[in-house]
Amino acid sequence: MAELNNPKVQKILKSKAFAHLATLGANGEPQSSPMWFLWDGEYIKFTHTKNRKKYQNIQRDPRVSISITDGDDPYTYAEFRGVVERIEDDPNGAFFDTLAEHYGASIRYPGDPRVILYVKVQRVVGQYRGGNYTQILVAKPDLNVYEAFKDVEGLMAQGVQIVQEVRTEEALTYVLKTARPLSAATTAAMLKVPGVWYIGANLDGTQRQPHLSL
Predict the structure, then answer these.
(1) CB contact at 8 A, 194 and 142
(2) Residue 112 belongs to some domain of the structure
């Protein structure tokens, strides 16, 4: 539950960490591989050969998931879910060489048939350590919080981290960490989501009054 412009997300996107690119096989099974990548401000870009299974997977189903860990803190990571929106031929391997230089590798284009994959990010989730404010959320047990709160203004930029989840037949309880205190307007918008019953907001120091949806 974060935006692309979240500082920790941007740090990861601009890093030289390996990205684990997951595609869907013919029978629906996930297939993941560590990859070089480059973020151009709009797309996450990869180089790939035309004769591998992952390329066939993408041609059949362009949906992908990309997981990248912060090299300075292995407990911080981001997952980017989206689609391969464009595929461009790279006959001379120019982008392969660009990535090799970016990662400080001495190898250069090996001569195999290459393409450039352009991934358009549709959703960002992950774990971002360092949130200062704790929220308690109680909701109906089948609530999908990612879908429920994706349009709540002001929430996506908080670097929300789910630190604990308890699900029973009666209720779903989350303990959340956020980078900044939730405003009264953001809390009110969350409480308007069907199935949200209670929010105890900013339990670490501001706006201690809990909120109940009646």
Answers:
(1) no
(2) yes
Same domain, yes or no, for 72 and 155?
no
Angle at 197 between CA 152 and CA 151, to 5 degrees: 10
0.85 surpassed by pTM:
no
Question: What is the domain range of residue 182?
Answer: 133-212
Do the domain assignments include residue 56? Answer: yes
Do 19 and 115 sit in the same domain of this protein? Answer: yes
114 domain-assigned: yes
Q: Which of 127, 152, 186 is the last residue of a domain?
A: 127
For 37-96, give the DSSP string: -EE-SS-EEEEEETTSHHHHHHHH--EEEEEEE-TT-TT-EEEEEEEEEEEEE-TT-HHH
**Scanning the structure block, which residue is given the tokens 């099974």?**
29
Domain count, the chain: 2
Per-residue pLDDT of the chain (214 residues; tens, 9 = 90+): 457 887 888 999 999 999 999 999 999 899 999 999 999 999 999 999 999 999 999 999 999 999 999 888 777 889 999 999 999 999 999 999 999 999 999 999 999 999 999 999 999 987 665 566 888 999 999 988 878 888 887 676 666 777 788 989 999 998 887 777 788 888 888 899 999 999 987 776 554 444 544 4
Domain identity same for 75 and 118: yes
